Amino acid sequence: xxxxxxxxxxxxxxxxxxxxxxxxxxxxxxxxxxxxxxxxxxxxxxxxxxxxxxxxxxxxxxxxxxxxxxxxxxxxxxxxxxxxxxxxxxxxxxxxxxxxxxxxxxxxxxxxxxxxxxxxxxxxxxxxxxxxx
Length: 133
Description:
mainly beta; 133 residues
């Protein structure tokens, strides 16, 4: 069994199209400047609907994490244990991702991270983060 694939619709398509090209994008409100994550039809801060997709640097810091020792579905069995994390992007917003490319026992809050991608079926690329040296 393979890993889950996202449900791509008109609202989320710009994110997944950018991911396919190796770019991390997030909606940003032109009215108040707030970032909006997950994709929404309006800003959660001011309820404005003047949202645009903005490319992000892919640099982040580990805000918090948990180590997953039991696969939630069979497609994830080869990944356990893995690190499920909330990262704070250099631009300010936070998002949940996995920390990859390191021993889970070496993960520390405050670590500097860089964006990387996990390839899934159908050409889908899922953003992940890996520690910087």
